[in-house]
Amino acid sequence: MSKWFIVHVRTGHEEKIKKLIESKLSNTGNKTVKQVIVPTEDVAETLKGEKTVKKRKFFPGYLIVETEDNVDDATWYLIKTTNGVFKVLGAGTKPAPLGAKEADNLKQTIEERKTKPVPKVEFNKGDKVEITDGPFVNFTGIVEDINNEKERLKISVSIFGRSTILELNFWQVEKV
Question: What residue intervals traverse the membrane (predicted)?
Answer without folding.
Answer: none
